[in-house]
Amino acid sequence: MISSKSERVSERNHALEDLVETFHKRLCAAFPEFAESEALKTRLYNALGVKDTSDASAERGEERYAFEWLGRQRAEQASLEPSACVLKPCRELSRNWETTEHIYINGDNLDALKLLKAQYCGCVRMIYIDPPYNSGADRMYNDRFRDPVVDQKRRGRNGSDANRKDIEGRNHSRWLSMMYARLRVARDLLAEDGAIFISIDDHEHANLRRLCDEIFGSENYICCFVWDTKKAGQGMATAHMVVNNHEYIYVYAKNGSHFSFKGVPRDPKNGFSNPDNDPRGPWKRQYLQRFGLGLPERTVTDPKTGIAYTFETPYTQEKLDFWVREARIIFPRSKYKYPVKKEFLNEYEHPQQLTTDLGLFSTKSATEKLYDLFGGVKIFANAKPVELIRFLVSQATRADRQDIVLDFFSGSATTAHAVMQLNAEDSGNRRFIMVQMPESCSPKSEAFRAGCRDIFEIGRKRILLAGDALKATYPDLDIGFRVFLCDKEE
Which one of 1, 5, 179, 187 counts the least CB within 10 Å of its CB? Predict the structure, then answer.
């Protein structure tokens, strides 16, 4: 008896359901922490394109919290599909092929990430990416997620609210699908103590947070840095008389319990001084009293005046008495005020913590420096400041290891420039891996007239020029790079 198509589909789905259940049980046996994770089972079902019939709430039509978008299932499948490409060496475009540790890949970054997993899975210390912001001005990585409905509606003249909302929703969905597939593969490349840094602006800020919470886990969220792109508003007045002068950098760790920033050296000018010429060096005041917290009351007595001061404090009486004997307590002239403690700069065990406000890194200045590097040619607009990326790399990597820094939206190769710059300054051995698709430059652009037909070539020339400039001062610096073409296997 020949079974119908619906019966064959049903049989296939039941077989895949059994496969999911078996695989889920094996994972839970190996990793007990997954035992209560229904999300894991759902992702297994989604990856195979099977409806999860075990989800009782869905069957009953009950509402539940979920982050969904048009094309999500296809993006999940795309992240799991093997690449049909290979990495082909391009010695003629490389520099110092035999000795360099740096890599520059020309091609689609999703394919490149999948190919890199074979050698670099769990090896990358830091990923920094500056992806398309989906602002309408940047090129979208359509590849497998191209939506013809959006293109058709854009060409149409229907300006209704419903049409605009549909286009907006589909644009967000395309962006999410593009990012999801790449971030999911990129996560496997991170070392256990590694982290990913993602630049973004307001257009997809909220969606990126939810996307990263799902891929990397909300427990591995480290922070969201904010940095200023310019000091003040310039040019014509805006409609609402407000100018956006900041962008964001999300930071997620592979394993939050294993990652930490280095911190920055404490600045002696930041609250420290030595007005009494204490031989122990600069110090700053620390208040001892804490009000309204229900803490124990302690008493210290000024040995010179005999005045006793009682206040609530988290410190023990033994510590307070010790600090008095060590002349670390500054007593006030009035009995109605409270003593403070000297904290000496040279006794701090840890560097200063970072704050999420990174301050000003002018994009205008960064663009001008890039033009100067290319001899005045307006080669690439809105490049990220080298100083910004250099600071981030310095906080997430160490000079005494061969830490790998990956950027798979490398653009003008700012990250490569920053890695070489930092290696030059601290004699580091960091290695970069850059990936950039050959996005064409406009024939009318100065970059095209300067011989750069695509963004990949801009990045390659930038690494060459930056390397030459650094090599003049640091002759032992590795300024080479191996170029690979990510292309279909012949």
Answer: 1
Which has the higher per-residue pLDDT, 398 or 146?
A: 398
For range 152-181, the mean pLDDT? 71
| Residue 243 and residue 233 in contact, taking contact as beta carbons nearer than 8 Å | yes
Label residue 244 by pLDDT band (50, 70, 90). confident
Q: What angle do CA 442, 443, 445 make, to 5 degrees?
A: 65
Q: Is the distance from CB of 296 to CB of 310 less than 8 angstroms?
A: no
pLDDT of 150 reads 46
- The answer to whether the beta carbons of residues 81 and 186 sit under 8 Å apart is no
CA 445, 447, 450, 453 dihedral sign is negative
Q: How many C-beta neighbours within 10 Å does residue 7 have? A: 10
Minimal CA–CA distance to 368: which of 358, 360, 378? Answer: 378
Integer CA distances (angstroms), 215 to 180, 256, 260, 358, 381, in order: 8, 13, 20, 26, 31
**Max Cα distance, the chain (Å):** 107
In degrees, to the nearest 5, what angle opens at C-alpha 459 toward C-alphas 456 and 461?
A: 110
Amino acid letter for position 311 = F
Rounded to 5°, the CA angle 222-224-227 comes to 140
Per CATH, is 85-261+356-488 categorized as 3.30.70.330? no
300 CB-near residues (< 8 Å, 6+ apart): 308, 309, 320, 321, 324, 329, 339
What is the model's pLDDT at position 6? 61
Question: Is residue 94 within 8 Å of 480, Cβ to Cβ?
Answer: yes
Question: What is the domain partition of the chain in residue ranges?
Answer: 5-57, 85-261+356-488, 283-347
Q: Where are the alpha helices (DSSP H) in 31-98?
A: 38-48, 56-59, 72-80
- The pLDDT tens digits of the residues spanning 330-380 come to 999 888 899 999 999 988 888 888 999 999 999 999 999 999 999 999 999
> Is residue 167 a contact partner of residue 70, using CB atoms and an 8 Å limit?
no
pLDDT of residue 17: 73
Helices (H), 247-404: 317-325, 363-373, 386-396
